[in-house]
């Protein structure tokens, strides 16, 4: 019998199958693959973080986040800086980290828990809270905060696009001041829709962000969206999606490689980490090199 210690932290509200609860569904998946482990429910972000931190302290080999991006974020915050590896069972809507790690489908994810390898990644941190894949100030956080949970369950990822189109006509850009530390120190001021940080080169749907992004290079990619005519923006975004081009080709978009940024907006604007709205500006964002171990598919 394997001596590997594995804890699965489950969001009980996550998408499940065949009329089962998410917990019952997980037990069935583990039994079918003859995987050992414990399953714990976490009804909120802080409970999931604490369970993960306690497991890391107790020397568990793997802690698996079974849910969406919010569950992944909570578990990663509990494991940051430890030797315990994060595994992912994607039961959410976006599943950004799962997509980028190559475990967006459950068969791949389960096989990775059993026979995958470890990879050490950077984390970003906003006002003390870690993020694994993305974080943003402004418009993207507005979309996340106004998204109807019922519509999200019914429409999946399309709900984000619908809400984004509606929100674009209601929201207005804010005045940003960005103090950036990267290859050079730079201060930018102007009207922006969003300051979006990415640790990976792509989002779900194969949505391109920036090709040079590498989650293990000690840098974050900051994508700034200046005010631009709506039709130009969405035409450019459509071309980027169609031809898988960097978002920096979209009108009003620029990309900066940074290690730390301070952002102040007028008026204050909300920010999100891995899709969860967390607070308002001002924010201080930094990269934390080699802060998290994750499980990825075995090399072919």
Helical/strand content category = alpha+beta
Uncertain spans:
none
Mean pLDDT figure: 85
Q: Kindly state the number of beta strands.
A: 14
Can you tell me the CATH architecture of the largest domain?
A: Sandwich
CATH class of the largest domain: Mainly Beta
Which sequence of SSEs, written as H and E, runs from N to C? EHEHEHEHHEEEHHHEEEHEEEE
Helix content bin: 25-40%
**How would you describe the shape?**
elongated
CATH fold title of the largest domain: Tumour Suppressor Smad4
Number of helices: 9
Q: What Rg, in angstroms, do the CA atoms define?
A: 19 Å
The biggest beta sheet reads: 14 strands, mixed
How many domain regions?
2
What separation lies between the terminal Cα atoms?
26 Å
The amount of beta strand, in percent, is 35-45%
Strand and helix map with partners:
Elements: E1 6-10, H1 22-32, E2 38-41, H2 45-57, E3 62-67, H3 69-79, E4 85-90, H4 96-101, H5 106-115, E5 117-126, E6 129-131, E7 134-138, H6 139-146, H7 149-155, H8 158-170, E8 174-182, E9 185-198, E10 220-226, H9 230-243, E11 253-266, E12 270-273, E13 276-280, E14 283-296
Parallel strand pairs: 1-2, 1-3, 3-4, 4-14
Antiparallel strand pairs: 5-6, 5-14, 7-9, 7-12, 8-9, 8-11, 9-10, 10-11, 11-14, 12-13
Describe this structure in words.
- With 300 residues, this protein is of the alpha+beta class.
- The protein folds into two domains: 6-115, Rossmann fold (3-Layer(aba) Sandwich), CATH 3.40.50; 130-289, Tumour Suppressor Smad4.
- 31% of the residues lie in helices and 35% in strands.
- The protein has nine helices and 14 strands.
- Strands 1, 2, 3, 4, 5, 6, 7, 8, 9, 10, 11, 12, 13 and 14 form a 14-stranded mixed beta sheet that branches.
- Strand 8 and strand 9 (185-198) form a beta hairpin.
- Helix 2 runs parallel beside helix 3 and helix 6 (139-146) packs across helix 8 (158-170).
- The longest helix is centred in the C-terminal third of the chain and has 14 residues, at 230-243.
- The chain starts with 5 loop residues before the first strand and ends with a strand.
- The model has no long low-confidence stretch (mean pLDDT 85).
